[in-house]
Design a protein that fits this description.
By secondary structure, the protein is an alpha+beta fold. 33% of the residues lie in helices and 32% in strands. The N and C termini lie far apart (68 Å).
């Protein structure tokens, strides 16, 4: 009878491990690189494990003596209820595809017709003169918005555990992929494409498990700022509108951040440190956002690319620009609430446009940058350096 109950307890534990391995809890599990391997094995083979376990339980149970069977029934009922409870929680409640439902057909509006608060942050994309903005409050809940721009299938994604937004081309080998959320693994959202069953990381766009393992989605350049700033730069942009069916969920961002991201995820701090991350010239560097809010602009050299990092005094805006213009490398400083280059004395706004001086009307080239928690930046950029503000 001891073997019977040991086997029953093992099956209950395996059901619990399967659920926890890809649902963001416990936080300590997120720190181990093998969590991904564990989650993939458990999620792909849990039905086989259940079937084999049940058959083994039945065989062992009927091998017991009659009096042992009678004594085993109460304990079996208790363990069965626990097993059923764990199954229900991690298949019908605490699971990504249920907690964070897909959006459905995205609805857009012009700047004049949009009902989105202009102060809210958005992830914006502009392809061949066509611009679209996706409120991060929507992406935070849905985690993804499959869309198209100019006939190109795209995938706008966001992970609240990383505070990481990305936009990808979702076409791989001529096939347009559709995704469903698996859960959170090592502090990052993982998706499964319904076409091949492969698992993909939100942060990198890489397929890490399944038939597509080793392949990567193509990045599409994007910018992240308040909707007000975005529309100042792209006044003809379309703006993704709230789906009224999820209005309450879109307002849950602060509560979710406090519980799932901030406290468990980063050594119990009130909030993980935010950085502006940049990859350029074959190198990666992070800029502390609290420092950037004080400095507003810093010039730097990343690899062979001279850049200037610009930030608002709050967290409504940040951007990175290439300092080269017409073969000349400009040096910038922040003064009188504007960006000034010492080479010509011209004044630039935060959007990288020269508004006064010899270079008036010229535009700096945007360098892709990311706004996210330091833990996520370090996890996926192990060789990153950090800008010294001293």
């Amino acid at each position: 009878m001891i073997v019977y109950f040991q086997l029953f307890v093992l099956l209950v534990i395996l059901e619990l491990v399967k659920g926890l391995s890809a649902n963001g809890t416990p936080p300590v599990l997120q720190k181990f690189p093998w969590q991904l391997d564990l989650a993939h094995v458990m999620w792909k083979h849990i039905e086989t494990i259940r079937a084999v376990g049940v058959v083994a339980l039945v065989l062992v149970f009927f091998s017991l003596r009659t009096d042992e069977m009678s004594r085993a029934i109460p304990g079996s009922i208790v363990l069965g209820l626990i097993w059923a409870g764990i199954y229900w929680v991690f298949n019908h409640y605490w699971v990504g595809r249920v907690k964070f439902l897909p959006l459905g057909t995205p609805q857009f509006a012009s700047a004049a017709e949009s009902t989105i608060d202009p102060s809210l942050p958005v992830i914006g994309i502009c392809v061949n003169g066509v611009a679209k903005a996706y409120p991060t409050s929507m992406l935070f809940y849905h985690h993804q918005v499959p869309d198209e721009i100019g006939g190109q299938p795209i995938w706008a994604t966001y992970c609240g555990l990383c505070r990481s937004g990305r936009i990808y081309d979702r076409t791989v080998d001529g096939q347009t992929l559709d995704f469903k959320l698996v859960g959170a693994i090592t502090f990052n959202a993982v998706f499964e494409d319904v076409n091949t069953g492969s698992w993909w990381r939100q942060e990198t766009g890489e397929a890490v498990k399944g038939p597509q393992a080793g392949k990567a989605l193509s990045d599409i350049p994007f910018e992240q700022m308040s909707l007000e700033n975005w529309l100042q730069k792209y006044p003809d942009s379309q703006v993704l509108q709230y789906n009224p069916d999820f209005a309450k969920q879109y307002m849950m961002r602060d509560r979710m951040m406090n519980y799932e991201a901030s406290l468990p995820g980063w050594h119990m701090q009130d909030r993980p440190a935010l950085v502006i991350g940049v990859e350029a010239g074959g190198a990666a560097r992070a800029y502390d956002w609290d420092q950037m809010k004080k400095r507003r602009a810093v010039s730097d050299q990343l690899g062979n690319t001279p850049i200037v990092v610009v930030s608002a005094a709050d967290e409504t805006f940040s951007a990175v620009y290439d300092r080269r213009l017409d073969g000349q490398t400009l040096d910038f400083c922040w003064a009188d609430d504007s960006l000034t280059d010492s080479s010509t004395g011209s004044r630039w706004n935060h959007l990288g446009t020269c508004v006064e001086g010899a270079l008036e009307g010229r535009q700096l080239t945007t360098v892709q940058s990311y706004q996210q928690y330091i833990r996520a930046w370090i996890a996926f950029h192990e060789n990153t350096t950090f800008f010294n503000f001293n």
